[in-house]
Specification:
294 residues; mainly alpha; MetI-like fold; two-stranded antiparallel ribbon; 14 helices; 2 strands; 74% helix
């Protein structure tokens, strides 16, 4: 038995280490996705028998105005969340400087990362309160009245995304700080010898070494924008009049409050397809980039 293990441990060891995670992924992710797709083909209230309706839920989805509002809001989340990586990089470059007291500044930028999303949502709800919130105090200092952002159907999504950007920027900052601490000192030194300073140093020496970190930051940011739910649930519950809802929240609302699990599963399936397309495209880009680098 020992000799058998020694002969095959080159593949047995990684297989045994990967197997528990693979089984968990198959049961929790893949099986749940297949079951959700199956439910989306039925009319089901979550309790009684499921009634087969085929693509009925998807046909209704195409004609549902709220679906397009949620899809548009997801796009707004996606576009605005793209600010997180560059701002996170800028802050990382700032706090990575060896200046006295910078550790305190770094910890202040790190705070939103350790806060729960629910806590961030509650804090920004207070900030946006038009009567006594921080935004109201700032406007009042200039002799103006603060807008009720969370009650304005045209501005509410932007207000929520700004709140969600706070911890997302902190997350990207931490990623880039880790990347900056692993820069090749030889390349940086060679760049300085060649006279690279400021923007030239950043563009030609630093950023190429942060490519992998940028891939991770962008992937996590995009997935976070597409699966946005908790901030909306805490701050507006999709209101006013569904104007701040996204696909994830609409799925939750239809399933839990309207007892339309089939329709909610159809929304979940659409969101899953969007994420799957992005992840497939993104992984293809990463593989091609690594092949060119090799």
């Amino acid at each position: 038995m020992t000799s058998l293990w020694r002969r095959h441990r080159w593949w047995l060891t990684p297989t045994l280490l990967i197997l528990p995670g693979a089984i968990l992924f198959a049961v929790v992710i893949l099986a749940s996705s297949v079951q959700s797709l199956w439910i989306s083909l039925h009319d089901w209230d979550g309790f009684g028998p499921m009634i087969w309706i085929g693509l009925g839920n998807y046909r209704e989805l195409i004609n549902d105005p709220q679906f397009y509002v949620s899809l548009k809001n997801n796009l707004i989340w996606l576009v605005m969340f793209m600010l997180a990586p560059p701002i996170g990089l800028a802050i990382a470059l700032l706090v990575n400087q060896k200046i006295k007291g910078m550790r305190v500044v770094k910890s202040m930028f790190f705070i939103p990362l350790v806060l729960a999303s629910v806590a961030v949502g509650v804090v920004f709800t207070w900030v946006y309160t038009p009567e006594f919130g921080l935004l109201a105090l700032i406007f009042r200092a200039f002799g103006a009245n603060a807008p009720a952002l969370l009650s304005d159907e045209h501005l509410v999504t932007f207000a929520i995304v700004i709140a969600a950007l706070w911890p997302q920027i902190a997350f990207c900052m931490v990623l880039y700080l880790a990347g900056l601490n692993n820069l090749s000192e030889e390349l940086v030194g060679a760049g300085r010898v060649d006279g690279a300073r400021g923007w030239n140093m950043l563009r030609h020496i630093v950023l190429p070494q942060l490519t992998q970190v940028t891939f991770i930051a962008l992937a996590v940011t995009v997935v976070g924008a597409l699966r946005s739910f908790d901030m909306i649930s805490v701050m507006t519950r999709g209101g006013p009049f569904g104007s701040s809802s996204v696909l994830a929240y609409q799925m939750f609302e239809q399933s839990i409050f309207s007892y339309r699990f089939g329709y909610g599963a159809a929304i979940a399936s659409v969101l899953f397809v969007i994420m799957a397309v992005f992840i497939t495209w993104y992984l293809t880009r990463i593989i091609r980039a690594e092949e060119r680098g090799a």
